[in-house]
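I'll show a typical protein example:
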Amino acid sequence: MSIPVAVVGASGRLGRLVVSVVEALDGFDLVASLGSGDHVEDAGPDVFAGARVVVDVTVPARSPAIVDAALASGANVIVGTSGWSADRLAHLRAVLGDRPEQGAMVVPNFSIGSVLATHLATIAAPWFDAVEIVEAHHAAKVDSPSGTAVRTAERIAEARRDVGPVAAPHVDQRARGQQVASVPVHSLRLPGVRAQQDVVLSGVGETLTIRHDTTDDVAYTPGVRAALRAVPSLRGLTVGLDSVLGIA
C-alpha cells in the first residue's frame, strides 16, 4: 500500500520539486498539495487528507506552527524550511518526546553534495585554528545565515569540542560576520546565484577551502527521495541527511 504524502508550500520552487518527486516515487501517493498561504495550522487535521508524511517547505515564520499541526494530525514530518534554530529544534524534540510513535526530520539542505561538504569540513575542522563560512544564495532568500551554514558551523563546533572554539579576531566589528557556534558566517544575497557555500579553514602557512555549488534544483532530488523513504519509520528528531547517508 502506498504511503500518503501532503506537501505544504507546494507552489514554491522547492515545493514543486518535492511534489514531482513524490508523484514519481514508487510506494508514495500525493494526497494534498497546499500553498504557503494556506493557513493549515488553523484548518484542523483533515487538511492533510490523512497523510502519513507531511513535507513542510514553506517560510521560516510559519514553519513551526505547520509542523506542530502536522504532528497533531498523526503524521511524520520532513522539514525542508530554513530557519530552524537550536531553540526551535529543542521545542520540536520536546513535542516528539510526548509522541514516541512519531518522528520528524529537519533537513537544512537536500543536496547530497552539500551534506558531504559539511561532513568534510567537520573532518578538517580540528586541524585548523581559524574557520570561516561564506555562503551565497539568490536575492529572494528571506533568512540569513542559511540553515546549511548554521548546521555547518554547529557541526564544526562539535568537531572541535576537544580543541576549543575557532580563532576569530575582531568579532566586535560588524563586517566580521555573524558568529554561529564561534564560527564567523558571511551571507551574500545576489541575483544570478542559486546556492553556494565556502568553508575556509586556515592555519600557519596554508589555507583549505571546501566549496559546494548548487547550479540546478535537480540536485535536491536524490536527497528528497532519501528523506521520503526514511521518514515513515523514524521516531524522535533527526537533523540532516547524515544518518540516512550513513555518515553520521
User: Anything to note?
Assistant: The mean pLDDT is 95. The chain has two domains: 3-110+218-245, 112-216. The domain at 3-110+218-245 is CATH 3.40.50.720 (Rossmann fold). The helical segments are 13-24, 63-72, 86-97, 112-124, 147-159, 221-230, 242-245.
